[in-house]
Amino acid sequence: MKKVLILLLISTIISAQNxxxxxxxxxxxALMNLEEKVGQLVQYSSGWATGSKxxxxxxxxxxxxxxxxxxxxxxxxxxxxxRELQRIAVEESRxxxxxxxxxxVIHGYKSTFPVPIxxxxxxxxxxxxxxxxxxxxxxxxxxxxxxxxxMVDIARxxxxxRIVEGSGEDPYLGAAMAVARIKGYQGDDLSASxxxxxxxxxxxxxxxAEAGRDYNTVDFSERTFHEFYLxxxxxxxxxxxxTLMSSFNEIGGVPASGSHYLLTKVLRGMxxxxxxxxxxxxxxxxxxxxxxAANLKEAAELGLEAGVxxxxxxxxxxxxxxxxxxxxxxxxxxxDESVRRILRIKFRLGLFDDPYKYNNVxxxxxxxxxxxxxxxxxxxxxxxxxLLKNDGLLPLKKDIRKIAVIGPLGQSKEDPLGPWNxxxxxxxxxxxxxxxxxxxxxxxxxxxxxxxxxxxxDRTGFAEALETAKKADVIVLSLGESLHLSGEAQSRSTLDxxxxxxxxxxxxxxxxxxxxxxLMNGRPLTINWFDENVNAILxxxxxxxxxxxxxxxxxFGDYNPSGKLPVTFPKSLGxxxxxxxxxxxxxxxxxKVPAYTSHYNDESNDPLYPFGYGLSFTKFEYSDLKLxxxxxxxxxxxxxxxxxxxxxxxxxxxxxxxxxxDLVGSVTRPVKELKDFAKIKLNPGESKMVEFSITPExxxxxxxxxxxxxxxxDFKVFIGGNSVDVIEQSFKVVE
Length: 735
Ligand code: BGC
Prior knowledge:
Blueprint: H1 2-15, H2 21-31, H3 34-40, E1 42-45, H4 61-66, E2 72-74, H5 79-92, E3 100-103, H6 116-120, H7 125-141, E4 146-147, H8 171-186, E5 199-203, H9 222-229, H10 231-238, E6 243-246, E7 250-251, E8 254-255, H11 260-270, E9 276-278, H12 287-290, H13 296-306, E10 311-312, H14 316-326, H15 332-348, H16 361-367, H17 371-384, E11 386-390, E12 402-406, H18 432-440, E13 445-449, H19 462-470, E14 474-480, H20 501-509, E15 515-520, H21 528-533, E16 536-539, H22 547-555, E17 620-627, E18 631-633, E19 638-646, E20 652-662, E21 673-682, E22 687-694, H23 696-699, E23 701-702, E24 708-709, E25 713-720, E26 726-734
Parallel strand pairs: 1-2, 1-10, 2-3, 3-4, 5-6, 6-9, 12-13, 12-14, 14-15, 15-16, 18-26
Antiparallel strand pairs: 7-8, 11-16, 17-19, 19-22, 20-21, 20-25, 23-24, 25-26
Helix pairs in contact: 1-2, 2-15, 3-14, 3-15, 7-8, 7-16, 7-17, 8-10, 13-14, 17-22, 18-22
The chain binds beta-D-glucopyranose.
Beta-D-glucopyranose binds at residues 50-51, 104, 148, 201, 280-281, 488.
């Protein structure tokens, strides 16, 4: 009888399409007992591990589901396989609450797109949104409801391996990319069967790990935190991100996954976030080694009270939450609030209305690795490359007869997939050699020699590489990092091109042949020797399935590169952290008399390549910078107008960038801050008037009292194709 009643109630809930989500959430909550409520707060990996081993429950996934002891699984894919989990949840558990299935779709499911830092190099939010849309279409067809992406952590230290997963060092660009990805994954209708919930991570400050060592301590001022590190999170919350992941690190003595200030005061109180928070892998359990909880039970209490709704692989909620409530240590109201947040997202995804909406095998066959999505990976790859140097060698002439591709990445099928490639299919990867063969067919001979491995000291391949290179008209050096050198837990203590690759390049250089470096890597590297000695450098990051075809298009001028760096390239590791939006200091460098000004004895302060930098085969000229007025009220917007001209021989796209500087404030302000950008296409000789606007919102900052305000005073505005080479004007803001 009881069972029949519950079934009746559930079906009323499900059919009540016109009732508000909140009412439906409450009606489910009213039926739940304590164990079932706690079950919703528990998440386990149902497949492979993406973190260290934890003390998992003995029961199988299906037993846990049947018992209502689990609300979410991750690391499990396939329309059929995930259907079975869902079937158990909605047909065999008492309350039939659907399970939510998560996965790290970071830059694709099986169809691998460029790594996030590469996509950010496109400075094209529309393109990045399309990429996320495709990733959602493909992964949702394989049973995925929810991706643990985008990673919106600001990173100023290239030693940190996870710099590859984000959008670089700047909060404005980072926010634009975060919003684009949220919109792409979640679409206009989260309940559609081809949209998935996004999860902004890692909240917060994770990218500022001391010395770039993953999981390390973070400590900075509240102002820096809000002004730089929290900006992309705030933008993503405003854009409607469904979920958020709390991070591993501590900030100022408080681990983020136990921080009431962050997860409740800022996120929910100040920002109004109404989705749910999932911990990172065991980050609630790690409150014990952090030293703020004596045992797992205390960690569970701390985590939930702070605002972590779902415990990923932590066992803390699973093992101790019922007991904590029964002992009166955690209130049922707190539990209810967390359950409510999780159910809300399950409703918004439409899982209560149709729990199997992501489990159509036909859709899976059609959408996974479809021709359209593979083509899309190439479109994104083309815009993700950054031309760092070109003395005129590029584009190569199509009548070249002999090309030597030299280096360990030239034929690699795996590395172009990059870290976190999920179910990336190496058989679908087009290598550099294959890309050149596809482009030139039988008209040219493409020779290959590995020369050396990515890591290690073995130089025995040098001789063959030199012999091969001797026969060629041009050398394409294919060097860099393996996919395993960046990503989670992949910090490095040097930024050199690893192993003996640079040595190999030096040997080849002695042949005096034209050389282009095609670099694959997950972080800025110190490539001074290459900058001085090779003819051209193409930064490719990891471009995904269509790597070789996209690279060949650029090398032969079928695509004119348009990417710009989202992160500064230092000259040497000792300069790190080096970022463009730094403060002036009381003793800024005086290049003429450096003594007692802020500088190094043995290195310049300048980067090798600044933020926003990237070349094209054509040239762009900026002129006629004008402002709508020179004096503005603090609630007015300013129009910034200038002319951009393509003065070169090729059609091309330029990312025009706008920076501002607030000259005097109640607190010190960065020497430059990005406040707008636009990608503009121009034919040779064509020019265009471009208009940006500086809204009051863009001039706001956290003043002496931590109020977010515009302060009257003098400003500078800069326009240019990177953060250094700019033209400028001044304006004044008055009360
Ligand atoms: C990572 C997260 C990831 C999670 C699940 C963790 O180790 O830090 O970024 O989403 O594992 O795979």
